[in-house]
């Protein structure tokens, strides 16, 4: 939780905004304006995990690589449907086909085959079950997984809590500054919101290839807590 402060005496404020003073004169009471920026925070347990899962295949020809990829990806999508993941929570993330080369000194690169890849972004609304579903995807042909990004499905209540916290911090700081200056806080003049974090910042990525996993392994996904924050600037009138 951070706060910053700016104290503006009436004469200074008028000098800083001459254009406004010429068009719309502002009459300030005998006092000072104090700007305080503060960050309010709260914590929540993430209830959504977003993970990318895909299939990478190799083939002597482009058609062979794509055909094998399509077959395995169909099994992956079927496994997601069988696990109860809604269609709205599955989105194609990338599709690629690239030639593979052999490089020999003094000779032009030679195409040795093709690599096809297809990945989907999956939103798991039950974070505790996401690890087991990933294991099922690997069993059905997925050999590339990265994530998760943990977030809140409905962050509005948490953001409002952080906003309330930020204003309280700003008020407390304003009263402290006013007391130190031999003044008192009369009222809030304006409140502006400078930025928010709704708890959806990406977590450090976890990457796994199917060949590195044992059949008996289970993939644990721990939700932990995510920070929700809001930064505001509050202008106070002091006398």
Can you give a write-up of this model?
The protein has 239 residues and is of the alpha+beta class. The chain has two domains: 3-44 and 156-198 and 230-238, Translation Initiation Factor IF3; 48-151, Protein of unknown function (DUF541), domain 2 (Alpha-Beta Plaits, 2-Layer Sandwich). 30% of the residues lie in helices and 40% in strands. The chain has five helices and nine strands. The protein has helices at 10-16, 18-23, 62-82, 127-139, 156-180; strands at 3-8, 32-44, 48-59, 90-102, 110-124, 144-151, 185-197, 206-208, 226-238. A five-stranded antiparallel sheet has the order 4-5-3-6-8. The chain has a four-stranded antiparallel sheet with strand order 1-2-9-7. Helix 3 (62-82) runs antiparallel to helix 4. The protein is elongated, with a radius of gyration of 28 Å.
Give a quick rundown of the structure:
With 239 residues, this protein is of the alpha+beta class.
Task: Indicate the overall shape.
Answer: elongated
Radius of gyration: 28 Å
User: What is the CATH C-level name of the largest domain?
Assistant: Alpha Beta
Mean pLDDT: 82
> How many E strands?
9
Percentage beta strand: 35-45%
């Amino acid at each position: 939780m951070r706060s910053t402060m700016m104290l503006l005496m009436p004469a200074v404020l008028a000098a800083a905004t001459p254009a406004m003073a010429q068009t719309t004169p502002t009459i300030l009471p005998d006092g000072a304006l104090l700007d305080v920026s503060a960050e309010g925070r709260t914590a929540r347990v993430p209830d959504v995990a977003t993970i990318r899962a895909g299939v990478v295949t190799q083939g002597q020809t482009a058609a062979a690589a794509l055909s094998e990829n399509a077959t395995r990806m169909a099994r992956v999508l079927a496994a997601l449907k069988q696990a109860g993941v809604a269609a709205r929570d599955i989105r194609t993330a990338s599709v690629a086909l690239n030639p593979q080369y052999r490089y020999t000194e003094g000779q032009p690169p030679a195409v040795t085959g093709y690599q096809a890849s297809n990945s989907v972004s999956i939103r798991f609304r039950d974070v505790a079950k996401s690890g087991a579903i990933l294991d099922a995807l690997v069993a059905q042909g997925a050999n590339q997984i990265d994530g998760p990004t943990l977030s809140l499905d409905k962050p509005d209540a948490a953001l409002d809590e952080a906003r309330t916290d930020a204003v309280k911090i700003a008020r407390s700081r304003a009263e402290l500054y006013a007391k130190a200056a031999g003044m008192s806080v009369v009222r809030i003049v304006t409140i502006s919101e400078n930025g928010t974090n709704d708890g959806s910042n990406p977590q450090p990525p976890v990457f796994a290839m199917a060949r590195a996993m044992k059949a008996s392994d289970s993939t644990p996904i721990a939700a932990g807590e995510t920070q929700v924050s809001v930064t505001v600037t509050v202008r106070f009138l002091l006398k």
